[in-house]
Amino acid sequence: MNSIYTLTATCPDQSGLIASITNCIASNGGNILNLAQHTSVDLGMFFCRIQFAAPSISEPDEGGKIFSPASFTADFSELAGKFNMEWKLYDKSVKQRMAVLVSKTSHCLYEVLLKHADGQLDCEIPVIISNHPDLCSVATEFHIPYFQIDTQKGKEACEADIQSLLEQYKIDVVCMARYMQILTPEFTRRWDNKVINIHHGFLPAFKGARPYEQAWKKGVKLIGATAHFANQDLDQGPIIFQDVVRVKDTNSIHEFVEIGKDVERRVLVEGLKRYFNHNVFIHEGRTFIIE
Amino acid sequence: MNSIYTLTATCPDQSGLIASITNCIASNGGNILNLAQHTSVDLGMFFCRIQFAAPSISEPDEGGKIFSPASFTADFSELAGKFNMEWKLYDKSVKQRMAVLVSKTSHCLYEVLLKHADGQLDCEIPVIISNHPDLCSVATEFHIPYFQIDTQKGKEACEADIQSLLEQYKIDVVCMARYMQILTPEFTRRWDNKVINIHHGFLPAFKGARPYEQAWKKGVKLIGATAHFANQDLDQGPIIFQDVVRVKDTNSIHEFVEIGKDVERRVLVEGLKRYFNHNVFIHEGRTFIIE
Amino acid sequence: MNSIYTLTATCPDQSGLIASITNCIASNGGNILNLAQHTSVDLGMFFCRIQFAAPSISEPDEGGKIFSPASFTADFSELAGKFNMEWKLYDKSVKQRMAVLVSKTSHCLYEVLLKHADGQLDCEIPVIISNHPDLCSVATEFHIPYFQIDTQKGKEACEADIQSLLEQYKIDVVCMARYMQILTPEFTRRWDNKVINIHHGFLPAFKGARPYEQAWKKGVKLIGATAHFANQDLDQGPIIFQDVVRVKDTNSIHEFVEIGKDVERRVLVEGLKRYFNHNVFIHEGRTFIIE
Amino acid sequence: MNSIYTLTATCPDQSGLIASITNCIASNGGNILNLAQHTSVDLGMFFCRIQFAAPSISEPDEGGKIFSPASFTADFSELAGKFNMEWKLYDKSVKQRMAVLVSKTSHCLYEVLLKHADGQLDCEIPVIISNHPDLCSVATEFHIPYFQIDTQKGKEACEADIQSLLEQYKIDVVCMARYMQILTPEFTRRWDNKVINIHHGFLPAFKGARPYEQAWKKGVKLIGATAHFANQDLDQGPIIFQDVVRVKDTNSIHEFVEIGKDVERRVLVEGLKRYFNHNVFIHEGRTFIIE
User: How far apart are CA D289 and CA C176, in angstroms?
Assistant: First the structure.
């Protein structure tokens, strides 16, 4: 079987970019399956995501050759230097490892685990970490180790425990699935653009605590949720995915919370899908989803 | 033909409200066509909108009697006093008169005039006022007087001119259909909850100028518009209607503006419909749309 | 604590209906919490759903009286006779009992069980029945008995087994949560308007088998799902709830199936919510959802 | 200024397609602005739309060369032959000419003309043809010739008159903006995939007359509209764009019609936009919108 790779590249817009890139892939034996590209007229920047198949040891090409990531990297680095390009190559067979942080509510955790079991999230989930015992049974159903951290010890010790677990389980990315603690700037800096949070409000409105109550008091007619990278500015990191749902003015605050759950879980999973599919580019403090 | 009335009533929630109200209507000869009611568990408040038909001079009831607004008012006032109720009675045959304020862009004005011509806005539109000459031809197409005010004279003189036109045309409510001037607190206080504005952003996010540019820079995934009452706090008055549309990260700021136009015009007209249908209740700084 | 009742009533439209109904409730000691009513101009029919609180043994009114369903029924029957009304009174403390029929796919079953556990479905779920063993573990997680019927025995024997389980568990309503067998007319007649099915297409288009493949081949731009009562006409029973989701022409048939799952589970649960909240009226072969 | 071209190409999927195509563009001096591509796993077909800028007489490249459509066509034809490719090259400066057919209702015509005036439809509209006089004033507002055909003469003579006007005005494509006559198979065959109709129903459900009444009687919960190519099978030609809007069961048939107007006009314009942007590919009886 062929290997599948995804190449992402960003650079200032210039003439001949796509031809140069696609030639480099072709000359290394790659066959493009999917190419999505965007040139921002507002920024003069070029963003590109290419998925390609390439001959592997189990299925070499007619001449017996296989795709060599090392050779490709050498070739592409030269091209990248010329175009002042940032780029990455992902091998589909190497799954990213995601830890899930949770507190007490189960709807986001269930959604992540069910969609993962259904093959819709291209990652591994080796560990679940919580500041409460409540969701241990859910983890058990899905045969994933669950660790409860002791928040009595203080935030610093707590995050040290989390960090230690992330290292132990060789974690690449952290998902906050309604984890109701604020991470320290030290933590988010260390895991820069590697912590994905679901906020139960349509950011940038309704940052911080009790967003549904804020929304109800304001009398908004749609409520939403936002999957975003957590950084040192609370609920202000780059937005990955958002959605809203229409509410009625006859809905209570409690009903906003209930209705919102469906949006939250959907938005979180859609955000994670795009992350693991390498559709997410970050530039000048915002994302560009290229798909 | 029967006359059609709409009754709106708000009061603290109590037992027996609906039976009392519907009895008062029935005993005055009214036949309920439509009743919408909401009790807010969060506020302990009761909101009610009732549309009823009643025998008129042209179609008295079998006993020859007609509905008397004066008698009804006497009866209902007693009941309202008992329940500490705020209420209003609207006669459908008495149309409210709306002035439209515009600047240069035509999409909202066209929408208001086309929907009005199609019978979807239950009001009269006797005058259009602008700080620019550009949309005079649109007004002419629809046979509505158009006045251009001279912003060189300063905001105060300008608003005096507007006020004078509103009085001359016996205006009840003012619609800002992308009127790009900020009204003074004096003006909005005088026309309290009588000025409806369309803001081209999903409030409370993106208040003020250039909301689409703000939204683009933030990388939001949906953009929206908000119809709201204009008051002394810029873009913070009670929200009447909102909607959003999904955008792609490959859209430019310019495309946001283009895409947004459709949302703006739709939201403005939906807000106006609800206003003229007496669905809009204001309580504790927000609206309750009861429909 | 007060008891909560829901009254549903349908009749030809006439003058004085709401006042008569609300008076009957008030005179029996009921306090209306919520009233939704609709008069269809196309049919000349009146539909009404009223939720009211009434003094119970545990909380009698000031005079020591309690609401008597028997007295109310006597009073209301007289009124109903006069207006040629069909009506029902539901006591909120008496939960309906729902059986869930499934085959191999879990997404709808999980959704029903998770929403039920979250308190969003006002019913009991005492049994799950399947023609396959696959979902037994899901039932076990939620501590609900699971029975596998043997389809080798033929449809008649199979449905006899189902019927026997439904009787044994005193079932009121049956939910087909992606149960991939067609029920016989005998069965659906016996359970007339008591079997709720989720069809994975936007009915009335794409009836029958493989609706996503039909939709893909037709090149439709939105795919949907439909919760409806199953009757003897395949996928043609009255529609309870529907929703759609936009697809791209770059989606494969397989992706339609994946994307569709989210719509199916949401639509099924929204349909069930309305059913158990007594919002669903059936008239002239279609539903009227009054909420 | 550079010239802008759009290239569309379809062929069986093969290795090296994108590199070959982009090289051919680059070697002819083209600079790719935008590339969208799709490989259908269900059909094994490749679809590609590429927009590129190329040096024109007014702005030759550094070496003084300009892009020659003739040379490109020679080069690309060779490549196309090798890959068994269907393709077309569009010069953005050559606008397509669209005739609009209407009957009595104005909402779709207004939308087409307003969006065209706003620069959102990349075509010319040299003529409007109707079987009624009603919309002549709208055409006049926008300074477009309006012709009323005489349906008394019979369908054949009528279509002969239309055909004659289409030839006189050198029309490329015909838009039926709520034109309430059925075209003959002879006409649609002659204008194969060149007649775009707006159907006021969510096809393939509710073909033919009175789709809103059909929808109401069926009790559907969303109503829609469909922009599609008209062919000899009534309302069955390839679908270009669709959308729906949620309705309430308290809406009358008349309200369905009113609500539907907004969907119709939006869907028609979105369909036309995609057509004139060359996003619409037709394969095996359905469209693939590649954008």
Answer: 35
Most confident of B266-275, C48-57, D234-243: B266-275
**Contact D59/B at CB under 8 A:** no
Q: Supply the mean pLDDT for chain C.
A: 95
Tell me which chain A residue has its CA closest to the CA of residue C266. Answer: A262
Give percent of chain B with pLDDT exceeding 90.
90
Q: Which of D61, D235, D249, D262 is catalytic?
A: D235
Cα end-to-end span (Å), chain C:
25
Amino acid A89: pLDDT: 98
Q: Is the pLDDT of residue B64 over 90?
A: no
- Taking an 8 Å cut-off on Cβ atoms, the answer to whether A41 and B286 are in contact is no
Strand ranges (E), D27-136: 31-40, 45-54, 86-91, 96-102, 123-130
User: Which token pair is B54?
Assistant: 């009643």
Show residues of chain B in contact with C31, CB under 8 Å.
15-16
| Domains located in chain A, CATH noted | 3-91 (3.30.70.260), 96-289 (3.40.50.170)
d(CA C48, CA C54): 19
The reported pTM is 0.96
Q: Is C235 an annotated catalytic residue?
A: yes
Q: Using a pLDDT cut of 90, give the percent of chain C over it.
A: 90
Helices marked H in B16-130: 17-27, 69-83, 107-117
* Packing angle, helices D211-218 and D253-276, rounded to 10: 120
User: Long-range CB contacts (< 8 A, 24+ apart) of B132-135?
Assistant: B132/B102, B132/B103, B132/B104, B134/B103, B134/B104, B134/B106, B135/B102, B135/B104, B135/B106, B135/B109
D252 and C42 within 8 Å at the Cβ level: the answer is yes
How far does the CA of residue D258 sit from the closest CA of chain B (Å)?
9
- Nearest 5 degrees, angle CA D289-CA C258-CA C247? 20
Residue D1 has pLDDT above 80, yes or no: no
Enter the tokens of residue B222: 């949906």
Q: How many residues does chain A have?
A: 291
Q: In this model, does residue C32 exceed pLDDT 80?
A: yes
Distance CA D57, CA B256 (A): 33
Residues near C279 by beta carbon (within 8 Å), at least 6 away in sequence: C36, C49, C289, C290, C291
Q: Which residue type, as a one-letter code, is found at position D196? A: I
B141 touching chain D per CB within 8 A: yes
C290 touches chain A (CB under 8 A): no
CA pseudo-torsion sign B169, B173, B179, B183: positive
Residue at token pair 């008394």: D152
Q: What is the pLDDT of residues B269-291, one digit of tens each?
A: 999 999 999 999 999 999 999 99
Distance CA D107, CA D269 (A): 11
Count CA atoms closer than 13 A to D207's CA, side-chain side: 11
Q: Is A63 in the D-facing interface, judged by CB distances under 8 Å?
A: no
pLDDT digits (tens, 9 = 90+) for C242-258: 999 999 999 999 999 99
Please name the helix (run of DSSP H) or strand (run of DSSP E) that holds residue B197, with its range, or none: strand B195-199
Q: Letter for the amino acid at C90?
A: Y
A16: nearest CB among D16, D26, D34: D26
Interface contact flag, C220 D205, Cβ < 8 Å? no
Residues of B in contact with D120 (CB under 8 A): 258
Omega cis (within 30) before B204: yes
- Considering only alpha carbons, which residue of chain C is nearest residue D253? C42
ipTM surpasses cut 0.90: yes
- Positive or negative, the CA dihedral A72, A73, A74, A80 is positive
Is residue A204 less than 8 Å (CB to CB) from chain B?
yes
Q: Per the residue annotation, which of B134, B161, B235, B243 is the catalytic one?
A: B235
A16 — contact with chain D (CB < 8 Å)?
A: yes
List the single residue in A with minimal CA-CA distance to D53. Answer: A15
What three-state secondary structure class fits A58? coil
- In this complex, do A35 and D32 lie within 8 Å of one another by their Cβ atoms? no
